[in-house]
């Protein structure tokens, strides 16, 4: 799933005339997962920022002005 999403972003970024996605904010509470996502996106040439929770994500979104926000959503299914 993550690889497919990143491949889709890569294609969108490179297609002439498409909406350019260059700045991506990732909101993920698991530090290791967040760092992996940020590392992959940065290696592909995106300008990235990461936040550990929604509150920090909102503040960072206001300052960073991302083109895309990837947000982990936790739901308690019980």
Keywords:
alpha/beta; 3 strands; 3-stranded parallel sheet; 3 helices; 78 residues; single chain
Textual characterization of the structure:
- The chain has 78 residues and is an alpha/beta fold.
- The chain contains 3 helices and 3 strands.
- It has helices spanning 2-14, 31-43, 54-64, and strands spanning 23-27, 47-51, 68-71.
Short description:
By secondary structure, the protein is of the alpha/beta class.
Number of helices: 3
Rg for CA atoms: 13 Å
User: Would you tell me the overall average pLDDT?
Assistant: 84
Strand content: 15-25%
Largest sheet: 3 strands, parallel
Structural class, from helix and strand content?
A: alpha/beta
The percent of residues in helical segments reads 40-55%
Broad shape: globular
Order of helices and strands: HEHEHE
Annotation, overall tally of beta strands: 3
Tell me the span between the first and last alpha carbons. Answer: 24 Å
Biggest β-sheet: strands ordered side by side in the sheet: 2-1-3
């Amino acid at each position: 799933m993550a690889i497919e999403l990143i491949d889709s972003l890569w294609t969108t970024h490179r297609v002439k005339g498409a909406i350019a996605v260059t700045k991506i904010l990732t909101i993920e509470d698991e530090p290791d997962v967040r760092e992996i996502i940020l590392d992959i996106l940065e290696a592909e040439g995106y300008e990235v920022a990461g936040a550990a929770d929604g509150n920090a994500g909102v503040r960072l979104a206001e300052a960073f002005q991302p083109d895309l926000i990837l947000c982990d959503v936790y739901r308690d299914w019980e």
